[in-house]
Amino acid sequence: xxxxxxxxxxxxxxxxxxxxxxxxxxxxxxxxxxxxxxxxxxxxxxxxxxxxxxxxxxxxxxxxxxxxxxxxxxxxxxxxxxxxxxxxxxxxxxxxxxxxxxxxxxxxxxxxxxxxxxxxxxxxxxxxxxxxxxxxxxxxxxxxxxxxxxxxxxxxxxxxxxxxxxxxxxxxxxxxxxxxxxxxxxxxxxxxxxxxxxxxxxxxxxxxxxxxxxxxxxxxxxxxxxxxxxxxxxxxxxxxxxxxxxxxxxxxxxxxxxxxxxxxxxxxxxxxxxxxxxxxxxxxxxxxxxxxxxxxxxxxxxxxxxxxxxxxxxxxxxxxxxxxxxxxxxxxxxxxxxxxxxxxxxxxxxxxxxxxxxxxxxxxxxxxxxxxxxxx
Length: 376
Hints:
The protein is an alpha/beta fold and 376 residues long. It folds into 2 domains: 2-195, Glycerate kinase, MOFRL-like N-terminal domain (Rossmann fold, 3-Layer(aba) Sandwich); 198-375, 3-Layer(aba) Sandwich (glycerate kinase, domain 1), CATH 3.40.1480. Helix content is 38%, strand content 20%. It contains 16 helices and 13 strands. The protein has helices at residues 2-6, 23-34, 51-55, 72-86, 102-105, 115-128, 132-140, 149-152, 197-210, 226-239, 264-275, 307-313, 318-323, 327-334, 358-368, 372-375, and strands at residues 14-19, 38-45, 61-64, 93-99, 159-164, 189-195, 215-216, 222-225, 244-252, 282-288, 300-304, 337-338, 349-355. The strands form 2 sheets. Strands 7, 8, 9, 10, 11, 12 and 13 form a 7-stranded mixed β-sheet that branches. Strand 8, helix 10 (226-239) and strand 9 (244-252) form a beta-alpha-beta unit.
């Protein structure tokens, strides 16, 4: 955000509305770039992460809302955002900063749709394993602000919108269910995607090479069933000549009627653990870049060739846990969950595979002052 905004400096007053799981970090970037030109900041996000840092720079208007399932806070925040747009001073330059999570965090419903209808649609969409584009299209049909309708409220006024993308094609019509997508007529919003999962993959690749590791990073983003992707990643990791593989994208999980606890990254990691069992040279991480996997407080998991053995020692069955979408239970028992807390960004998921004999991994860790997991 800082880099994108610094490229087009302004001295005129800027009003910022930042919405999404990355809202606070995006707003901090705007403060760095705009300085005194930034006159008002509206933040709608899920977590308190870094808000103290933002408040030290000024007096932002903050609304904490609900994710991944919307609730009354989402409607209140949506109403405030709509009011904010309608009451923009004539002298202000509107700047919108949008990231993933906006679909749930803000909403103004189209009558006669109710909050219960919205909650049901969201829960059904998450449980059925539909991709994010399909789920967001369903949300748009219920909304008065999604699908470009908030942009239309600007009534032809010039504005700028910067996006941190968590959707497959980085399409502003899909990010946040099109919260700042193009309006049907008179649209004068300048739109730019400034970050996506490709940037995250490139950062992993760059760090791995700095650590002296050879890297395989396919250009195509992954999508689809977490179980099928686990098979693909485990197969590629076993066959590759590279020491580290990194993939970026977003998987899906179709939940059973009585689902346990977990998230798509934990499900993928546990499914992969079955396939790398007994391979002492293989380690795999699956995690959400936002630090949140599903409705859990964990980002994902790191699994290795002994994960399933540790699950069994704890008296659990990995296959049954996968069948019941109860991956968090198994991975907690094996000690493989990864907890980062909210990261301040949201560009989809990362899967990182390490193929390195234990002695070599220990050598890399020793050279760089970290454990094998830390190096991964």
